[in-house]
Each structure stands twice: as C-alpha cells, then as structure tokens.
Design a protein that fits this description.
Blueprint: H1 2-11, H2 15-46, H3 50-63, H4 68-80, H5 84-97, H6 102-114, H7 118-131, H8 136-148, H9 152-165, H10 170-182, H11 186-194, H12 214-225, H13 229-242, H14 248-259, H15 263-276, H16 278-283, H17 288-293
C-alpha cells in the first residue's frame, strides 16, 4: 500500500516542472556561452579588430540577450562606427541588466556628454558616484560635465579630486591645464603639466582621446604669455611635429615670426596652416590673400614696416617631412 502511494505521488508530479528545470539548465548554458563569446569579442576589440569583435558580440546576443557584457561590447563597436544612438541604446540596456554597474554608467555618461546630452550625463555620473566615490574616472567625467555647464571652478574641484585618487592621469591633467589657460593662470598651467607623464601606460580608455601635442601646445601658449618666447617656439614646433593635422601650433609660430621680423618664415607656417584648416586660419584674423600672394619678405602686416631682429626660430618648416603635408 505504502509503495503504491509513493508511485502515485511520483507519477503525479506535473511534467511542466521537469521542463522548467531543463529550461533553467539550458539558460545557464546559454549564459556561459554568451560570456565566453563576449570575452572573445572584448579581446578582439582591444586588439583593434572591430569586425571580428562585432561578429562575436552579435553571436553572444543571439545566444543570450540578457548578457550585459555583450551589450556593452556591441555598444562600443557601434560607437566606433559612428552609430551613436544605437550604441547608446545597447549601453543603456547593459546598465539596466547590470543593476547599475558604475563602469557601464561612467561610459554611458561619457557617451551622453559627447552627443550633447549634458544633463543625462551628469545624472549617470551622480548615480555612479553614489556607488563608488573612489574611482578617478567618475570624477573626471563629473568635471567634464561641469565644463559643459561652464562651471569652471566646480570642474577644477572635480579634477583635483580625480588627481588625488590617481596622480598620473594625463587626461585630467590636460583638462585642468586648459582651465588654467582660460583663467590666464599660466604658472599653475605649467606646474600642472610639469607632472604630466605622456607614456601610453597611464593613458586610460575611459575618457576622450588625448589630442597629440596638446601638452606642448599649452606649454607654448603659457610660455609666450609669460614673455618666454624662445621656449614657446620650441614647444610649438614640438606640438606641430606630434600632431600633423593641427593648424593651431602653426598659426602660433606664424604669429611669433611676424612679431620678430621674419615674414618668410611666417608665410611658410601660414601656408601649412591653410592646407590643414582654412577656416581656423581665417578665423584667427589672418588676411590670407595678402600674406600668401606677395613675395616673401615684402609683407608689412597692418601697413607697418617689419623691424629686423635676431631670428629666434631655430627649426624652420621642412616641406619634405611627411608630418607637414
């Protein structure tokens, strides 16, 4: 009798219970597979193989649409291709699935900021800071949000907090120096950049890209404002060498050449700036047609004669160098 009851109880268990158990097991295997594919995609992404990375992240999402790492990876792939809104949508999903992982939130805030959604960026940053106040990248993002709101003092406070947590932080050091430049605090600018290490080991991947030659350009501007012209020239030349696509350092060198009675050199730098960025060159106030239409040495800016002076530009532009093309 007791055996019969046991058999009856066993056979009366709904078959759906077993199916649910199998389903749960299947989902677990899917999750493992999605994580494995996401790791492979992340590795490919770090190696710069974006096509392979996107394929792997797509496969991961096909296996499991609830894997936050796969959504994060797909977001980065789409962002790299310029598909901003799709990238943001995937990262928003990653934040949701991870229950507010600060790393996902920091990246989402950065994306919001880069497309001009400043308030949403600040909101993501605030929520993330509530969870982790010891991560320098969050304070860097908060500083950038304050810059976007034109709250420079608040931005400086955030950048200083970031540097207290991570002293070797080139992105934040440059952002801090930029504010000092705007505030005409050139000694502080130079002191900040004196501690800058530009080696790749301390350049992170959670912030905006650092423009090549930016530190030398800022140093050159500060030196020029402080009356240290010869030193400024060397920094501007270094900036031009590091950033072949930037006209700013070349315009600075052209301006110095005019001030020191070297119109031929000014014309050479100005011609390079025009090739790189005609709009910026004209917006800087140069009468390009006049400067580039007359023979070297015959230019008299503002109708005033150029006074001769000892040359201070030690390295003239070399048109054969690829970085000047």
């Amino acid at each position: 009798m007791r055996l019969g009851l046991l058999l009856t109880c066993f056979t009366s268990i709904p078959t759906s219970t077993g199916c649910r158990g199998i389903g749960r097991f299947g989902e677990s295997r899917q999750s493992i597979a999605a994580r494995r594919l996401s790791r492979q995609g992340t590795k490919a992404m770090r190696q710069g193989d974006w096509t392979v990375a996107e394929t792997l992240f797509t496969e991961a999402l096909d296996v499991s649409n609830v894997n936050d790492a796969a959504h994060r990876g797909m977001s980065e792939s789409l962002w790299q291709k310029g598909h901003r809104e799709e990238a943001i949508a995937h990262l928003e999903k990653a934040v949701q699935l991870s229950a507010g992982d600060p790393k996902h939130m920091q990246r989402l805030g950065r994306m919001y900021l880069e497309v001009g959604r400043v308030d949403e960026a600040a909101r993501q940053c605030q929520i993330a800071l509530d969870s982790d106040r010891e991560w320098a990248a969050l304070w860097a993002l908060w500083g950038d949000c304050q810059v976007a709101r034109n709250e420079k003092d608040e931005a400086l406070s955030a950048y200083h907090r970031a540097l207290s947590l991570q002293p070797d932080y080139p992105y934040v050091q440059l952002r801090t120096a930029e504010i000092y430049h705007q505030q005409k605090r050139y000694d502080r600018l130079l002191a900040t950049l004196d501690r800058l290490r530009e080696d790749t080991e301390v350049v992170g991947d959670v912030d905006e890209a650092i423009r090549p030659g930016a530190a030398d350009l800022l140093r050159g501007i500060a030196m020029r404002e402080l009356g240290r012209t010869e030193e400024s020239v060397q920094y501007f030349i270094a900036s031009a060498q590091k950033n072949p696509e930037d006209a700013t350092s070349r315009l600075q060198l052209a301006s110095i050449a005019v001030e020191t009675g070297q119109p031929e050199i000014a014309q050479t730098w100005l011609a390079q700036a025009m090739r790189l960025d005609p709009s910026a060159t004209r917006n800087a106030g140069w009468n390009v047609e006049t400067w580039l239409a007359v023979p070297p040495g015959m230019v008299q800016p503002d109708n005033l004669p150029i006074q001769s002076s000892p040359p201070i530009i030690a390295a003239q532009p070399d048109a054969s160098r690829s970085w000047l093309q």
